[in-house]
Write a structure and sequence with these properties.
This protein starts with 5 loop residues before the first helix and ends with a strand. The protein is an alpha+beta fold. The strands form two sheets. The chain has a four-stranded antiparallel sheet with strand order 2-3-4-5, with helices on one face. The protein has a two-stranded parallel sheet with strand order 1-6. Mean pLDDT is about 80; it is low at about 1-10, about 475-485 and about 490-508. Helix content is about 55%, strand content about 10%. It has ten helices and six strands, in the order αβαααββααααββααβ.
Length: about 500
Amino acid sequence: MRCPDGGFLMRKLVVPLLTITLAVTGCTLGPDAERPQTAADTAATFVNAQDAVTPATDLTPWWTRFGDATTTEMVELALEHNTDLQVAAARLLEAEAAWGQSRSTLWPKVDYNLSASRTKNSFVLPEMGRRTIYSTTYSDGISVSYQVDLFGKLKRTRQAAWANLLAEEAARQTVEHSVIAGVVRARVQVATAERALEIAQDIRTSWERTLATVERRYRSGLVGAVDLHLARENLAATRAAETQIAASVKKARHGLDVLVGRRPGTGPLFPDTLPELPDLSPVPTGLPAALLDRRPDLLRSEMQLSAATYGIGAALADLYPNLTLTGSAGSSSDSLGDLLDIDSVVYNAVAGLVGPIFSGGARRAEVEAARARADAAGAAYAGVVLNALREVEDALVADDANRQRLEHNQQRLAEANSADTLARERYSRGVEPFLKVLETERRMRSAEEALITTRADTWNTRIDLFLALGGDWTLPKTENDKPDAPSEGLPAGHPSADPKSTETKVSS
C-alpha cells in the first residue's frame, strides 16, 4: 500500500486553487463609512455654558466627587449585578459571535467525509440459479471550497458586522451610564425621602407640643373648642403625612435594591452620609464636538450608520458574478486496508463563476433599499446629535436656575420659620388667634417642602449634566487596554483605523 504524502495533496489540490485565487484581483464596491458633519461640529461652545470652554481633565468617576462612600458602593454593586447590564452584555456576546461568523469568510471551508457501505445483490443465472453477492465499500475524502471576494461583498459584510459589534458595545455602555445615573438618583431619592421624614417627625413633635398648649389654655377657659379641634386635626394631618413619607422611604429603597440586583426590601440600611447638595462649581463642558466621542448613544448611532453604509457595497456586489473555487480528494476501496493506497485516490479542482442575468429588478431594488437605509441612518444620527446638544443645554439652564432657586427658597424658609416662631409665641400670650398659627405653620411646611424639592432637583440636574456630557464615567484607559480591532470595520478617519491599508475601489 502506498500512502499519499502531504506534498501530493499540496501539488494536486491546494496549489491549483491558490494559484487561481492569487490570479484574481478583486475590488471593493460601495462607499466607505465616514462620520458626517453635524451641528456639534459647527458649534464653538455651548450656548448656556457658564465659563469659557474648558476641557474636562479630571477623568475620575464623577459620582466619587460627591464624597459618599455608600453611593460608590451601590454603583459597584449595580455594575456587577444589574439585570439590564446583564442583558446588554449578552447582546454584545451575540454581536461578537456574528462578527466571528462574518470573519470565517476569510478562510476556505474544509470538510471531510468517511463512509462504509454494505450492499447485497441478488440475481438469477440460467445455469447457476439464484445467486447473492455481498460487497463492502469504504471511502474517504476531503473537500475545500472558497469564495473569492471579487467585488467586496464579503468584506463589506464583515465591515457591517464589525460596525454592528461596535454599536452593541456602545449600547452596553449606554445602559451602563443609565444604570449608574439611576443608582445615584435612587440614592438621592432615598436621602431626600429620609430627610423629608425627619422634617415630618419634627413637625409632628411640634404639633404635639402645640396641642398640649391649646388643651391647657382650653382647660383654663382662655380659648374655645374650635381651637382645640383645629389643633387635633392638624396633628392628625401631620401624622398622616408622616406615614405617607415613611412609605415613600421604603419604596425608594426598593427601587435602589432592584438597581443593584437585590430582592426589594432586603438591602441594609446605610448611613445618611450624602451631602445635602452636590458641589455646585461649574462643570467643564468642553467642546460640543467632543460629545461625538464621549457619548455612547452617539457612537452607537454612528456605527449603525456605518453598518448601513457598508450594506450598500454588499448590495452592489450582488449585481456582479461570484467566483467559487472548490476542490476535493478522496479514495474508495473494498478493503479498509487499501483505503489510503495512492492508486485509490481521486481528486478534482473546479473554478465556478456564477452571475446574475435576470431577476426582475430585485437586485437593483435591494441596492436602492440599502441606500435608503443608509439615508435613514444618517438622518437618525443627525437627530441624535441635535437631541444630545439639547440635553446639555437644558441641563446647563436647569443647573443655573437651581442655584438661584436654592438661594430664594433658603431665604423663604428662614422667613417662614421666623413668622411661625413669632406667631406661636404671640399665641401663647394670647395676642394672636390660633388661625394665625395654622397659617404660619402651613407656610413653613410649604417652604420646607420647596427647599427639599429644590435640593433634589439640584442633585438630579447635576446628574443629568454629567449624563448629557457623556464624560467622567470610568478611569482613562491606557494604550494596552484598547481592544484589537480590524481597521476594515471602522469609518474612514477613525483613530483606530490603519492609515496604511489601501484598496482598489470601484465607484458606485
